[in-house]
Amino acid sequence: MKVAFEYADVNGVAGRFNNERKSAGKDWLKLFCKRYNLPVRNPEQYSVARAMGSNEVQVTRFYNNLKSCCLEKKFPAHRKFNMEETIISTVHRRL
């Protein structure tokens, strides 16, 4: 909601935003998600192993590997995909 406010503010888009909190309201978010058929989900817990692997060194290593792989294999743009993680669970639950 804060990003929506900032975008509207920078681009001069008129809207019914809360100028004190510098945020769009919950009603705006609900209508936006409905308009673009976007589900609103609660975030899952962040596993300790994933948190430890999300440091600057590991992230830099990942992107360097990605870059070298793309350059070596010469993947065209239409063969690159952004996989979202909403279906993949990173939290181990006991049954």
From TrEMBL:
In terms of domain of life, where is this protein from? Eukaryota
Protein's name according to its UniProt entry: HTH CENPB-type domain-containing protein
Source organism of the structure:
Araneus ventricosus (Orbweaver spider)
